[in-house]
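Board notes (copied after class):
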Amino acid sequence: MGSVTGNGRRLFAIMTCAVMWSAGVCAQSAIKIYPLKPPQAAAQPAPAPASTAPIPLATADAAAPTVASASNAWGGERTGSEPTLSDRVVSYSIDADLDAPHHAVTGKEHMTWRNRSDRPVSQVYFHLYLNGFSNAGSTWFTEREVLTAHGRSRGAAALKKGEWGWIDLKQVKQGDSSLKWSFVQPDNGPATDRSVVRIDLAQPVPAGGTLALDIEFLSQLPRVVERTGWWGDFNLVGQWFPKIGVLELPGERGATAPRWNVHEFHFNSEFYADFGLYDVRITVPSDYTVGAVGKLQGEPAVANGKTTYHFMQGDVHDFAWVAAKGYKMIEGSWQGPGSPKVDVRVLYPPEYLASAQPTMKATTDSLTYFSKTLGAYPYETVTAVVPPYNATEAGGMEYPTFFTGEGYAKVEPGTLTQYAVDFVNIHEFGHGYFYGLLASNEFEEPILDEGMNEYWDNRMLRERGQGVDVGTGWMKSLGIVPSIPGFDIERLGASLKNPPDPLGQNAWDRFSSSSYGTVYTRTATAMHDLEERLGTPVMERAMKEYYKRWRFRHPSAADLRATLIDVSGDARNVNAIFDEYVYGNAQIDDSVASIDSDEVLPQAGSWPKNGARSEVVADDLDKQIDKQREDWKKAHPKPAAGAGPFPWRSTVTVRRDGAPVSQVLRVKFADGSSQDVPWNDDRRWARFVFTQSSKVVSASLDPDGKIKLDANKINDSLTTEKNGAASRRWGADAAALVQVFYSLVGSL
C-alpha cells in the first residue's frame, strides 16, 4: 500500500509533521527492543516423525526473525530451469458474478492445495478479509479506533447503513462431504472478529497430498474506506475470496516446526499467501470496463446484457480486479532484457484524463528501472487503475501485475502534482517486486515490503534527478526555487528521535499508526545510510543477489541481512543498521558542542635554556608580545584573513547522543582553508585540537549530508562568526515546507 497516510497525501502528512516538529507534535516515546542473535544460517530441517496433533498457529507477537532461513526453504533457490517460475502450492478456479447495483459478488471457488509438511493436516485456515469491514467489532475497526487516536491514518471514513462489507460462506465441500467451519482469532483479537476461519476436513490431507475444496460464497463490497470497495459505479474488488493461509515449515522464516501463518486482518497490516495459479471468470454488466490481475484469455463472452472475462495468471499469490462504468483505457507495451513483451494498460475515469499518460510513463519507466536494478520482470501484463473522485482510498494499492494510483484533474511537468503522480505509481509498481515477486510476509515484516520498496523507489527518483520542486509564483520570480530530494522528504517524516518501535516489529503491534508509517520513511532512511557505508556499487550487487536468491520464495529480514553480509563482506556495518534499527530502536544525534580558540603566545615562567634557566617575567613578556605584533603589522600591511604573528590553538568538542556512527568532522579556518578529521570510535564525546596559523571559525559533522538517520541536523554545525548562510538555508527549507503544505492542501 502506498502508505498509512495515502501516497500523495503521505507527502502532506510528512510535511505537516515537519512544519510542526519544533512544537513536539510528532514526538513519540520508546517502547521495546527485541533480543538479538548474530546472523547465522538455520540448520537444515531434519525429518520428524509424523504427528496427528493439530498444527499450531504463528503467535500473535510474531515479528522479524533474527535467524536466516534454511537454504532449502520454500524448495530452495529458483534456478529458472523449473517447469514453473514458482513452486505452486495452491490453485484457484473462480467464477465471479458482479451484482453491480448492490456491489456484491457471487462466487464459486474450486481450490487445490498441496500439503508440503511431513504430517497429515486435518484442519485448514482461510482468510476472509472483507469481514474486517463487516462491523465495528472486527479487529480492523477496533484497532483503527485506538491507533488513529495517536496518529493520523488513511481509512478514516465512517460506514453508514448499506455501506458495510463482508464475506459469507454459503457452502464448503470436500468431495461429497459438506464441511463445518468456525471463526478463530489467532492474534487474540475480539471474539467478534471473523477475518480468519478454521475449516475441519472430512478426510485429512496426507503428507505430500493434495486437498481439493469447493466453496460457494457471497462477497459484499464495502463503500471504499480503505484498499477495496465501491463508490458510485466503481468497484475495486480486492481481498474478496476465501484464501487459504500459509503453512510454514521448519527453517522457513524462523519456524522451528510446522505452523499456520494466518493472522487476523489488522488495521495496519496487509497480506501473505502462497504462490499458485489463478483461473478466474468475471461476469459484469456489458457497459462496465474490467481490468484484473493476469492476462485476458480470448475474447470476452457476451450474453443477456452481461460480459464474462476470463483471466489467468500463474506464479502469483493474489488476485484482484476492477469493474467500473464509464471508464476509459489507454494501452502500451514494454520489453526489456530477459522479460517477455509486457502489455501495459491504464484504466481511468474521464475526470482524471490528465493522469492517464503520466501513469503510463511512470509504469513503463518503472519496468525499466526495476528490471535493470533487481531482475527481469517475468509477467506479460501490468494494469494500472486510477480511482474516481470520492474513492481515493482505493488508490495506492498493489496486487501482482495490478495496482491502483491516484487521480488529478491537472498534472503539469515540474509541479508537486507531477511528483505525487510519479511517486505513487513508482511505489505501487515497485510492490510488484517486494510484495509480489519476493512475497515477503506483510503481516510480520512490513519492513521488507513497504520499507524496502520505499527505499528502492527513492533510488529511482534520485536517478531521474526528480525531487519536490516547491518554488512557484513569487518565489520563482525572486529566483528562489527550493527543491527537496526524495530521501530528504523521507527523513523529514521518519521520526528519528526516540522512535517507539523497531523497524522489524510486526505491522499491528505498534505504538500508533504514525509509528507504523515510519516503516516506510525510516527504512528508506536507514537503507540510504547503509548504502553510504557500503558504497553504491556494493549495495546494488547485494540487492540483485537478494532478488535472485529469494524471488518466488518468502524471505525474512534475517535473509536480507545475510545476503547483504555475504555480498559486501562488511558484517560490521550491516549488523549495525540491523541491530540498531531493524531489531532495535536506536537513534543517532551527533552534534558540535563548542569551538574554543586561543593564540599560542610566549609564556611567563622559568624555562631551561642552554643548560641554564631563564626566567620570563609577565610584564616584560607583555611588552615583547606587543612589539612582535607591531613589527608583524609593519611587515604585513595587507595581511591575509586570519593571519597574525602567533599561531592559534583551536579546540572543537563534539558530543554523541545515541548510537555511534562513523563521522567526518570538517573544520574551516579563518584563512579559508579546511581540514577533514574522522570520528569513528564509540566515545560519547571527543575533543579535536588544531594548532595552525589561523583559528577555527566553523565546524561541521557530516558536511556532505550522507547520514540521514541523524535525528537533528541543525546541531551538526557551529560557527564562531556571523554567517547568514545557515539562516538562509533553514529559511529556504522552511519556506519549502510551508509551500509543500499549502500546495498539498490545495490538491486534497
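Comment from the instructor: Residues 16-48, 738-748 have pLDDT under 50 and may be disordered. The CA atoms of residues 92 and 111 lie 5 Å apart.
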